[in-house]
Amino acid sequence: GGQCRSHRSTPxxxxxxxxxxxxxxxxxxxxVVVDFR
Length: 37
What we know:
Structural class: mainly beta
Shape: globular
Oligomer: single chain
C-alpha cells in the first residue's frame, strides 16, 4: 500500500495500489488530489 498525504491537520491516509501520490514536501501543506483513473 502507498501512503498518501492529505491536509496538514489530517493524518496520513493509506491509499490502494492504484492510487499514486507525489510526496508534496515542497511548498506549503496543500490538499493532495487523488487520481483514481
